[in-house]
Amino acid sequence: MTSITVQVNGRAESHDVEPRLTFADFLRHTLRLTGTHVGCEHGVCGACTVLVDGKAVRSCLMFAVQADGCEVVTVEGLAPDGELSPLQQAFRRHHALQCGFCTPGMLITAQALIDSEPDLTEERVRDVLSGNICRCTGYVPIVAAVLDAAASGDRKR
Amino acid sequence: MRLSAQTRAAAIGLARERVEDLRFLKGRGHYIDDVILDGMLHGVVLRSPVAHARIKSIDTSAVLAMPGVKAVFTARDLGETVLIPLRAASLPGYERSFLQPPFAVDKVRYVGEPVAFVVADTPYRAEDALERIEVDYEPLPAVTDWASANRDSVLHDHAGTNVASSYRVTRGDPSVVAGADYVRSERLRCHRHSGVPLETRGLVAQWDAAQQRLRVWGAAKVAFANRRILAGMIGLPETAIDLIEVDIGGGFGVRGEFYPEDFIVPFAARALERPVKWIEDRREHLMATNHAREVDCELQIACRADGTILALSGSIFVDLGAYVRTNGSMAPSNTAAFLPGPYRIPHFACDVNVFTSNKTPIGSFRGPGRFEANFFRERMIDIAARDLGIDPVEMRRRNLLTAQEMPYDPGALIPNSATSPYDSGDYALALSGVIAASEWDRLHALSGRIVDGWHHGVGVACFVESGGAGPRECTRLRLADDGTIDLYTGCSTLGQGHETSFAQICADALGIAPEAVRVFHGSTTDLAEGFGTYGGRAAVMGGSAILDAARAFIEQARPLAVGLFGSPNEELVWRDGAFFSADGMRQTNLAELAGAARMNGRVLDVEGAFNNTKLTYSYGANVAHVAVDIKTGRVKVLGYWAVEDVGRMINPLIVHGQMIGGIVQGLGGTFFDEFIYDEDGQLLNASLADYLLPTASDFPSINCISLEHARSTTNPLGVKAAGEGGIVAVAATVANAVSAALAPLGVGINTLPITPVRIWRAAQESMTTTATSGSQGN
Amino acid sequence: MKPAPFDYLRVHSIDEAIAALAEHDDAVILAGGQSLVPMLNFRLASPGLLIDINRISDLARIGVTPDGLTLGALVRWHELESSTVVARHNPLLQYAVRHIAHYQIRNRGTVGGSSAHADPAAEFPAVALACDAIFSLRSARGTRTVTAADFFRGALETALEPGEMLVAIQFPAWPVRRGWGFEEFARRAGDFALAGAIVLLDYDADGVCADASLVSFGAGDRALRLTRAEECLRGIRLTVGALTEAARIAAEDCEPKSDMHAPAEYRSALLETLMLRALNAAAAPDRRTVA
């Protein structure tokens, strides 16, 4: 067991973990932050995407021990309690989610993109989101929601 | 009784933002892997690594001593052999029993078949233990396609054959092709793929020994039917079992059927008297959850010179996989039944042949049989139109059923099922709609031309799509203390948004705001009886049951209102969620009724139901514009247009979302998704790196129009199925478009999926032929 | 799909990493983990020890000298994607990196990890081969350098010996008169390519092709330099005919394999098409970096 401390959504979390515990399982089962979803465990579906030190990464391809000392944002940290971020609102407006399983990964990826790149084109949004699989929506409303949120004045979460 | 006219604006028809989004967007959804119980253990399934073998021995002795391991289960622990029954209507031949036991007994018949179940304190340790179970397999020849099904070896010894079913359906006299000016036969093939929801399956089971009660979380689709199956297999009364539905990450027909694990996990929890969780991993999912769609077809079309279709006849050959699963009859029977489609084809026949093979068993995947049948038929029509020199749109117009022909009886085309006439519709209207929306004439002028090295093509296809009939569906309405309504439905929600749309139906039925209705779904704990969600039935059956429950609710509330008013019964009028006195001067609303009920020591709690044996038929037409690079085989879908008449939309936002989502899923099934087996029956691509699903960058231009032209006559809401119409004509439309693009090369697409290799090879062969014959025009 | 147990060691210097490698013969280096961790999750690999080099800041640098561009083994794809230095000093590399996997993978994946993994369809090894990059390998025995051609031995096989770790990759300076082309064909954006082609064409002051570098990837067990095709371009003024002939020879010389995604004959034809397109791109005036 290794002792780690991770800042998750602004809170310091200290735990002893087995080296092989994936970061996704740590978030979900140790911290019970179950908003981060696991869809493939081999780095293809993107449902487990979280921000680690500001970068969108797949939490199934990291071990919890590697996150020691890192700052992490999960879907639970995208907006204050009881509120929806502009991006979350845009997702709702555009019906950009159905079953909701890909949604946390989509939101984290799209928020990272919006935060880091001005002047997004549809092509760029589609390219970036191509690492997140959605089986329900056909992506059309998701892309529309991201472009809508990016174009609105209130870009930041 | 009578419902007076509501003055409140209707909620049905509103593009209302979804209620469930609030929790999903915040990461507060509650999916099966989010269910955590005290003392919960974790199970993993040992699956067969070989396609066909006798099990000589299973040695689990090394496992029990491993850290954290609590138990190992195999077929031996079940005592006598239990089998998972067929839920859907049977097919001739299925009585020989090709049913699957929870654990392989004596023999394994596909890669991925459950052999053992290990329970440990963590999933990590359970997986460690899997590696230490020793199974001695004696290999048998693998049957990997229907053509060799009668040669290699028999899967089910007691049945003595790999032919699971064989029957013929007809209407008219299909031998009447003598008068035909034109007859053509083709072989076509649809490939094996499946729904692949983003959330894999999972279950948590808990045995309450004191209460002798089994609770199972993770139910989906048909919880009530699955409870009945589980009760029969595990030897408990239905009333001692709760199946509880939590949020579900997509279903598409494959999620929620009764699988081996649906028995194994509760069995283990009962045996251990500890809660047991099992979460399918993605690799397992691709080899364990139902496959679909693999069917070959030999089809003959007979027409007059003017394009009038006289007859359609042929055979289909369905690869069932190793067992008949709960709905293992749906795809074969529906493929045959939907071959005639929306057309006036007086003479039709189909020989249905269903074969077992050493592959994962098949089940229903969104639009079962329709996706396949539309592809076969619409290709035949395009081929005939081209041969006859008739415009493909015109050929379809000539043969589509008209509004005057409704209701239209398609005949008895599904064994052991009642016939169900096409209820209503103006099929040519949908075709005209998509022709206008896609600017067909402009695109058609491009078809077959080369622009900057890309071969352009445009294709069209029409479809009719059944949905929404029995068994009976139920709804329960309960008045909460604050005057809001709790609505419990027997329907399951796998992401469609019933918490939003069902509230809209209930709101109109009671004349209240949809915000005043909370919807609970899918669990057997909510209702005495229910059925589930599949085949486009939730809005039709569940929605109509809400109307019945609302009527019952008002009737049950009336005596309370009488008490409050002190007036005789008949003077009270229900309007806008309240009883009004006859003069309209006094009223009592739901909150007051709730108070009155409380005072009387009662709760207003009623059930309603809807039963209906007739199907609804939505219909529509699609157009695709593609560009093909024959050097690489790349196909770009430059534009996709779809028009579908769903009769009436409860929530246009949701209907539209279903349509776009279905189309892109269908485009995936047309170009990418494919289970690839080798000749030994090994599944080669059990990962999402190799089993390709469409991504955000693949199909950017999808355009949908939903019509509310012809309401269904089968249900009081007038709604038709809206969840599967998006996907059903996609392969048909795209294959016609690609074939149009490559027509100058003499290439037609009769085999799915449309891969770069297939395109390239067909173009190569065509050019080789051309070079030799020198006859190819352009 | 949970990994088998392993020990974990986080190191903060190259020396520490090398010492740990020398001590444990069942240890592997964990860099970005974007290829290794899926293999662990599938239990296709089960090393006894993971040596995590992610905190070695010395390995994360992009350096520029007159001799060229030096990438520490821990440089991540997204840094190459957005680097103006890389855009100036190796535009091919930046362009190719944008084709690697997906956004999240590029945020984490490293040049060293991809090289050590040596997937036959990976873009980076192919670019390294085309550019004659030099790989620096360190072990307790010291440092040695090998060329890209010698580093990549086959599918998932490299020149790395037990106890040895890849620390840097050096790309020679980008000549002033160079045209380049990069073409790959994948089923979907971000997938490993069914085949890919890279072309570098160096011109002399008179516009004669002084040197050529042609590489195929994704078609065989590793990226291949197509020397016979290169030879027929050297010392001539490029014509449509010459490029077409070079593409044909290139396709003839690569040895594609059949797998479930595509048969060899398709890959061979695809490679010829892609090579010709890459050659045309490299020969086009707008792809020439004339100072």
Explained architecture:
The complex is a heterotrimer of chains A (157), B (778) and C (291). Chain A is α+β, with helices and mostly antiparallel strands and 157 residues long. Chain A has 2 domains: 2-77, Beta-grasp domain (Ubiquitin-like (UB roll)), CATH 3.10.20; 86-151, Orthogonal Bundle (DNA polymerase, domain 1), CATH 1.10.150. Chain A has 5 helices and 5 strands, in the order ββαβββαααα. Chain A has helices at residues 23-30, 86-93, 103-116, 122-129, 140-151; strands at residues 2-8, 11-17, 49-52, 55-58, 71-73. A 5-stranded mixed sheet of chain A has the order 2-1-5-3-4, sandwiched between helices. In chain A, helix 3 (103-116) runs parallel beside helix 5 and helix 4 (122-129) crosses helix 5. Chain A is globular and about 45 Å long. Chain B has 17 helices and 27 strands. The N and C termini of chain B lie far apart (71 Å). Chain B has 778 residues and is of the alpha+beta class. The radius of gyration of chain B is 28 Å and the shape is globular. The model of chain B is unreliable at 774-778 (pLDDT under 50). Among the domains of chain B are: 21-30 and 470-610, Aldehyde Oxidoreductase, domain 4 (2-Layer Sandwich); 389-469 and 614-773, Aldehyde oxidase/xanthine dehydrogenase, molybdopterin binding domain (Aldehyde Oxidoreductase, domain 4), CATH 3.30.365.10. With 291 residues, chain C is α+β, with helices and mostly antiparallel strands. Chain C folds into 3 domains: 7-51, Uridine Diphospho-n-acetylenolpyruvylglucosamine Reductase, domain 2 (2-Layer Sandwich); 58-172, Uridine Diphospho-n-acetylenolpyruvylglucosamine Reductase, domain 3; 178-287, Enolase-like, domain 1. Chain C has 12 helices and 14 strands. In chain C, the strands form 4 sheets. Chain C has a 5-stranded antiparallel sheet with strand order 4-5-10-6-7. Chain C has a 4-stranded antiparallel sheet with strand order 11-12-13-14, with helices on both faces. In chain C, strands 1-3-2 form a 3-stranded parallel sheet, with helices on one face. In chain C, helix 5 (91-97) runs antiparallel to helix 8 (123-130). The chains are: A alpha+beta (157), B alpha+beta (778), C alpha+beta (291). At the A-B interface, helix 2, helix 3, helix 4 and helix 5 of A face helix 1 and helix 14 of B.
